[in-house]
Inverse folding.
């Protein structure tokens, strides 16, 4: 095995120019002004065809979304209908466990252009790093998975289990692509999603759900503000009550070995607070928006009920609120939480990998498509990939090519351990 | 005196149709789409010319605003330059104290038209009330002062002191008109401003100053919100600290006999709170706007210093705020506080008036132009007039004509007591 690992390592090092070139093409395609996701998919289709994979295109317009009522569609169906997932199935020799390599092709917006000192879609190579939107999140991760697969084949290793690589759309808007991929029949005994984890293991991912709180106050002149009811002050009480709930959920959900990097295990973030429209009037309305961190192992309904209960209790404790209740609305983006059980054989595989960095096992403070694969497809998922999470969504996003290669090597070993393998005697 | 009061009362009752007609003209003029203040002034000029007063027009474009640095000009000087105060001086027979009758001709916007069930500028008479924007605040009050003056003359009473009636512009935007009137030489030994007080005495008026608080936080992903610094939470602490200051000022400023109607003597109202722009991000900025209630007897500087000190202390107590200090900006509308001293002879006059309603003495929770007359002109002012403060700035604003007549009668008596009088033997 150690010799095979060395061979894989050697092959990857020798092909780093090809890796860089491929990643640069992907970043450039992601910057296409019209339907960039389709342009990225085209790069994959071409690349996989060159590798002689059995490439399949899965248009989203074939998907019956009503089968996934829990999915929040952040974009109109007409827009989703323009997009496709793309997969390739590489058949094993038989008798092994199958594996899915999942990665998303969509990238977040560039943000403030003036904060970039490189072309956001130039794919420039500087000091061993490739720069551009999506370099880390997560085109670089898909490249690691692709070259892991290719390095195994080129090193004369024949996997026993089937491997499917799937490039999905629309992760950043809530996961419609991965959710659809399960309905499109793309599944396996286990999966890797190569989101940027700095080559750490993220067996657990926090889910999240946006919410909006609407508060009504009673206007009054500022000089007699005691005659009004300030929606701002009610908002402050709401935040205090939400923080108490957050502390309570932290107590229940905190796992020292997973959350030591997180001050709060499952934060409830109040992101916006907008109230009032005149300095000398008592604010008669406030709207708060936030993100509710969801913990694995708790149903959405149970999680929602906890927060709804906080609001109901506030409404019951105050005469004004009894008559003008605070309302809570769940809306917008939703990511399901997910946890790969520590006893699962797929988890075991990762524990057997040679540790070259000070590998860490963490609960991701954000959601991934793993929630969809697990929830709809019942697929156990390990989130692992190159690139640091801090780079994601930032200006001047970049990824170290050495990191892409390291991840490819580790993913290759994990594939071999999971799928089983023979040495191809023909090679 | 009782006979004279009866005569005045009788004259006013007999002229109530004229009072109604005049008030209706004023309300209609206030609705003129182009320079309504000038159109209201034209009604006064015509009316006073008919009374054979010595009418003077005082254009604001003659005013050197740099002489009143404390005044906040809410409108561009070019706009103010289109406007004029209008006054009439009615000379007394000599040997008496002079009096200024001050009222503002500007009215606040109509607001939501659909909330009005009458034409906002129709001046309709329904059940003894005249309806329309400005009916109460304060065209009705000026009418009371005009007819007080006229009733005295028509009842054959000759005042010893001079009386000036002055219709000023731009009270609602902060008092540029009254401030200018002092520079324009319009002054007297005492003044009445007939703002709507429901015929109660308001010897004290709360001043006010708008402020804006700018808070910087540190953005972070909502899932790791403890890595950010929430501008919303800093804002909550700012509000808490401001409320402590408010309580402290209430302790010092509360006078039971004046403030019993006010839960807070000098409120500090936080009217707007705007923070954050993404539910799942930690808010990196918050802007709070409010109104600082100013108490008479305290300089603006001292009042400002108290609030600035609150912010400075917050900044000093926190490492983040030390490096990213909260800033406090004084801006926008400013009304100076004012107090007519309880021992002042002008106050005494009002105490001698016959009490027909359950007259009350109150501190007004809002500012008036009295602050400007007192501060710049050193003129002692009593704020007293018809119409209830609750009607001001509301849809379907109206005033009881019986209230206008009652106020006219009381103002007439106050004028006689203050200026001194003889019975005109010719009449």
């Amino acid at each position: 095995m150690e010799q095979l690992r060395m061979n894989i390592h050697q092959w990857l090092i020798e092909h780093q120019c090809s890796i860089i070139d491929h990643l640069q093409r992907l970043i450039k395609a992601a910057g296409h002004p019209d339907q960039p996701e389709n342009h990225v998919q085209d790069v994959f289709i071409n690349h996989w065809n060159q590798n002689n994979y059995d490439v399949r295109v899965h248009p989203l317009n074939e998907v019956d979304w009503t089968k996934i009522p829990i999915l929040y569609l952040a974009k109109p169906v007409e827009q989703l209908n323009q997009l496709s997932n793309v997969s390739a199935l590489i058949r094993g020799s038989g008798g092994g466990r199958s594996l899915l390599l999942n990665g998303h092709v969509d990238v977040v917006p560039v943000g403030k252009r003036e904060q970039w000192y490189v072309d956001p879609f130039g794919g420039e190579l500087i000091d061993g790093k490739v720069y551009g939107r999506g370099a880390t999140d997560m085109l670089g991760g898909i490249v690691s998975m692709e070259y892991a697969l290719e390095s195994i084949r080129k090193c004369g290793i024949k996997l026993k289990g089937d491997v499917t690589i799937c490039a999905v759309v629309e992760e950043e808007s809530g996961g419609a692509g991965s959710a659809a991929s399960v309905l499109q029949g793309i599944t396996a005994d286990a999966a890797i999603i190569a989101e940027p984890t700095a080559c750490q293991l993220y067996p657990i991912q926090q889910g999240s759900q946006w919410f909006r709180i609407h508060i009504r106050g009673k206007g009054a002149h500022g000089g007699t503000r005691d005659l009004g009811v300030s929606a701002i002050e009610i908002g402050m009480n709401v935040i205090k009550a939400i923080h108490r709930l957050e502390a309570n959920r932290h107590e229940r959900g905190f796992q020292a070995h997973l959350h030591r990097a997180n001050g709060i295990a499952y934060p409830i973030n109040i992101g916006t607070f907008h109230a009032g429209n005149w300095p000398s009037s008592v604010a008669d309305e406030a709207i708060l928006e936030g993100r509710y961190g969801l913990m694995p192992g708790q149903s959405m309904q149970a999680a929602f009920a906890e927060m709804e209960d906080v609001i109901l209790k506030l409404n019951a404790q105050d005469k004004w609120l009894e008559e003008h209740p605070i309302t809570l609305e769940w809306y917008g983006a939703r990511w399901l939480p997910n946890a790969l059980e520590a006893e699962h054989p797929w988890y075991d595989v990762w524990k057997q990998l040679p540790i070259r960095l000070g590998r860490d096992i963490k609960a991701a403070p954000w959601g991934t498509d793993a929630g969809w694969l697990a929830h709809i497809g019942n697929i156990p998922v390990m989130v692992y990939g190159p690139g640091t999470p801090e780079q994601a969504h930032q200006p001047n996003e970049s990824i170290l090519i050495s990191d892409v290669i390291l991840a490819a090597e580790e993913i290759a070993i994990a594939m071999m351990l999971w799928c089983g393998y023979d040495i191809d005697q023909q090679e």
The two ends of chain A are 17 Å apart (CA to CA).
